[in-house]
Design a protein that fits this description.
- Pathway: Nucleotide-sugar biosynthesis; UDP-alpha-D-glucuronate biosynthesis; UDP-alpha-D-glucuronate from UDP-alpha-D-glucose: step 1/1.
- The structure is a single chain.
- The chain is an alpha/beta fold.
- The protein is 42% helix and 14% strand.
- The N and C termini lie far apart (66 Å).
- Bound molecules: nicotinamide-adenine-dinucleotide and uridine-5'-diphosphate-xylopyranose (UDX).
Length: 462
């Protein structure tokens, strides 16, 4: 089989950076067009927060791990190239709001074809619609130099943010899809051998190209569907007096079901779930399968419902108006242990409160103030001036909660489990409300202090 001696990864983001940083023994160069991002990867302040990432990067950087903006050099030198660029939902044109925007992937593919002077294995690491490898092959073959041969593999990434390093060191599985030709299988063996440096062979699964591409969309859709299912049940719990944690525990004890990923919440966020389901919806529609499209679309609709239901519950509970009231939002990241805010439910919830003319104070231990402003202004699309007087971004929980009529927990940061609630209570007007959108607080303790506590999926009335 082909021996991989040098790897290039195009795209130094949440996936490219961590996935390549854990590869031992082989020289890896991660390239990106974004100079600021590359500079950050080469500095002491990495561009993303991920537990364990600093140690891994600092021990490999300059030895077998390099970060550069010289995309062409990276491509030219490598035998294997991971394409790990962003594939966001299209904002305009055909499929707007659903289809994946493949422009970054296609630009990177064209660059490979233009620059390569020797044969390469090109690995689709980005999440893409089923059969994207076929268009990549067409682009590569139409633009390649004589004597250059390209094998295309699909190798979707299953890491979750916040646990990326642990997930990458000990993955449940590594999935590699290839054409079932002699050359395709040979390329597949070459990539399997790279992973075999640290992943047990029985966890490296090899399948056909299209199954591999579809498996990634399927896995994310089914994970998100579990959350929408449990969130749908949380609404029934609130109306009946049942408790969603008890229901989820009872359901999860069934070994066919398993206990993970059954936590009711304010709704799922993150850059993947919504985007990948919408991608699947678009794919289903393009394949003339409207019933299938409708089925998956409901998972996203339920998530939108959960976010607005939670925000509306805050308004209802505060006697139907929050105009002029201070509301504290604890947590801006879409989950704990990340600074990533893409599709974070906190953004929708804050916007809901702003539309009700509340004064919103925000605290998050990892998200920067400038990022919160980018999120609130939709990256500059909404003017900041009109909302500025209604927003404060705080450096501590105490400051954010001081004088707040409601404290709304949106992210399950560990530090929110051990707050000094007595002190917080002393600085709140009465009645003081806590809304737990993550089921992390000790309800009895807070009620004993004097708070009125409202939790997702709990029938107890205030
Ligand atoms: P990201 O936006 O953090 O990073 C992508 C990087 O690619 C950016 O830094 C961008 O500058 C760079 N880039 C874009 N076009 C380029 C080009 N032509 N040449 C060089 N660099 C280019 O995105 P991400 O979160 O790392 O996601 C990447 C892919 O992985 C997406 O398809 C995503 O769906 C998938 N994925 C993400 C996660 C996750 O947890 N974030 C998990 C699994 C899969
Ligand atoms: C997800 C997939 O888990 C991962 O395999 C894929 O590679 C990328 O997309 P990520 O979005 O980083 O990973 O985090 P994940 O842990 O899946 O959480 C997604 C969202 O669902 C978060 O907002 C989280 O808070 C929420 N969630 C998760 C729940 O509301 N309840 C749960 O039980 C689990």
């Amino acid at each position: 089989p082909i021996e991989v001696k040098k790897i290039c990864c195009i795209g130094a983001g949440y996936v490219g950076g961590p996935t390549c940083a854990v590869i031992p023994n082989i020289q890896v160069t991660i390239v990106d067009l974004n100079q600021a991002r590359i500079d950050a990867w080469n500095s002491d302040e990495l561009p993303i927060y991920e537990p364990g990432l600093d140690e891994v990067v600092k021990s490999a950087r300059g030895k077998n791990l390099f970060f550069s903006t010289d995309v062409d050099k990276g491509i030219a030198e490598a035998d294997l190239i991971f394409v790990s660029v962003n594939t966001p939902t299209k904002k305009s044109g055909v499929g707007a709001g659903f289809a994946a925007d493949l422009k970054f992937l296609q630009l990177a593919t064209r660059r490979i074809a233009e620059v390569a002077t020797s044969s390469k294995i090109v690995v689709e690491k980005s999440t893409v619609p089923c059969r994207t490898a076929e268009s990549m092959r067409t682009i590569l073959e139409a633009n390649s130099k004589p004597g250059c041969h390209f094998d295309i593999l699909s190798n979707p990434e299953f890491l979750a943010e916040g646990t990326a390093i642990a997930d990458l060191f000990a993955p449940d599985r590594v999935l590699i899809g290839s054409l079932q030709t002699e050359q395709g299988l040979d390329a597949c063996r070459a990539l399997s051998n790279v992973y075999a440096n640290w992943v047990p062979r029985d966890r490296i699964l090899t399948v056909g190209l299209w199954s591999s591409e579809l498996s990634k969309l399927a896995a994310n859709a089914m994970l998100a569907q579990r959350i929408s299912s449990v969130n749908a049940l949380s609404a029934i719990c609130e109306a009946t007096g049942a408790n969603i944690d008890e229901v989820a525990f009872a359901v999860g004890k069934d070994t066919r079901m398993g206990s993970k990923f059954l936590k009711a919440s304010v709704g799922f966020g993150g850059s993947c779930f919504q985007k990948d389901i919408l991608n699947l919806v678009y794919l289903s529609e393009s394949l003339h399968l409207p019933e299938v499209a409708k089925y998956w679309r409901a998972v996203v609709e339920m998530n939108e419902y959960q976010k607005s239901r939670f925000a509306e519950k805050v308004v209802d509970t505060l006697f139907n108006t929050i105009t002029g009231k201070k509301i504290a939002i604890l947590g801006w990241a879409f989950k704990k242990d990340t600074g990533d805010t893409r599709e974070s439910p906190s953004i929708s919830i804050a916007n809901h409160f702003l539309s009700e003319k509340a004064r919103v104070s925000i605290y998050d231990p990892q998200v920067t103030e400038s990022q919160i402003w980018l999120d609130l202004t939709d990256y500059g699309d909404i003017p900041a001036e009109p909302i500025k007087p209604h927003i404060t971004i705080n450096k501590t929980v105490e400051e954010a909660c001081k004088g707040a009529e409601a404290i709304v927990i949106c992210t399950e940061w560990d530090e929110f489990k051990t707050l000094d609630w007595e002190k917080i209570y002393a600085n709140c007007p009465r009645p003081a409300f806590v809304f737990d959108g993550r089921l992390i607080i000790d309800r009895k303790k807070l009620t004993d202090i004097g708070f009125k506590v409202v939790t997702i999926g709990s029938g107890d009335r205030v």
